[in-house]
TrEMBL record:
Keywords: Membrane, Transmembrane, Transmembrane helix
Origin species: Belliella buryatensis
Keyword Transmembrane: yes
TM spans (from-to): 9-30
Stated name of the protein: Uncharacterized protein
Length: 296
């Protein structure tokens, strides 16, 4: 019995050491940047990866970019509640693109990371709160997403040819053949629009964001981000209509999905701007709002 307890204790120690080492890796590679936000601002951009190319350029207009790859409306709602707890918020720019209500977002999101911004009141029970904010966060073996992060770290960091002087690299979007651009755009379309109807979870989360903004007198502005011509053509009229919810609620929308149709050089892929594109788009986005306000 004593030997069994000793072996069990030793196993738990090893497990904790491995968990600690893996968590340090995950924190540095996956979590750290997600938890960075500048609370000195009172205007914020909330979006998924379509907003990340804007980087810090928006800060020239006194707007902080709080976007993150794969953020869903559930994640954005958590961030909004966090901002409201920490300071006075005047305005939120939020993505209302065609895909943002996709059922795909029920699985492709950041609920494991955005739990950092939650408090007990955001959950129905203490167990749910502790499980989401602490257990899944710190215990690597309880979080399925972490295994994917570790796999990506190995394949993209340790075995990235470009990091070790290799010649294998990504071809710029503008240098792809038209056929290859269409193929990649079609793959992206099928990922987001594999189901006919919008996600009720995402719709409810967006409505909660709208209600919360009104309750705290926060101006909420919808943004439709630029698309490449290849993706814009395939998308056509297909949409889950997050923008329609804004129109129904009499909320302002800034629609720029077709502003760069002839500027493939500004895109990283079919529906994401590169850094240069993000810098140019920030000026268009926030200048247009300033002009609208002055005209009004």
């Amino acid at each position: 019995m004593r030997a069994f307890l000793k072996n069990t204790f030793l196993f738990l120690i090893i497990l904790l050491v491995v968990n600690f080492a893996l968590f340090l890796l995950i924190r540095g590679f996956y979590i750290k940047d997600y938890e960075e936000v500048d609370l000195d601002f009172d205007e914020f951009i909330l979006a998924d990866s379509h907003g990340t190319p804007l980087g810090d350029f928006a800060e020239e207009f006194e707007v902080h970019n709080f976007s993150a790859q794969s953020d869903s409306y559930l994640d954005m709602g958590r961030k909004l509640r966090y901002l409201l707890r920490k300071g006075k918020i005047e305005r939120i720019y939020i993505s209302v693109d065609d895909h943002t209500l996709s059922p795909t977002r029920e699985n492709q999101n950041n609920l494991d990371r955005s739990a950092y911004y939650t408090e007990r009141d955001d959950f129905d029970s203490w167990f749910e709160f502790v499980n989401e904010k602490y257990l899944k966060y710190y215990l690597v073996f309880l979080n399925d997403r972490y295994s994917l992060v570790i796999k990506n770290f190995i394949t993209e960091e340790l075995f990235d040819y470009r990091r070790w002087g290799g010649s294998k690299g990504r071809i710029a979007w503008e240098n792809l053949t038209e056929e290859e651009r269409r193929r990649q755009a079609q793959d992206r379309f099928e990922n987001y629009f594999e189901q006919d109807g919008a996600s009720e979870k995402m719709r409810d989360a967006l409505m909660n964001i709208i209600s919360l903004s009104r309750e705290h007198n926060v101006e909420l502005i919808g943004v439709r981000f630029p698309l490449s011509r290849s993706y814009y053509g395939i998308l056509g009229e297909e949409s889950y209509h997050a923008d329609s919810i804004f129109m129904k609620e009499s909320l302002r929308i800034l629609d720029f999905d077709n502003v760069f149709l002839d500027r493939d050089s500004l895109f990283r892929d079919m529906d994401h701007l590169d850094r240069e594109g993000g810098e140019i788009f920030v000026d268009i986005l926030l200048d247009s709002l300033e002009s609208f306000i002055e005209y009004k």
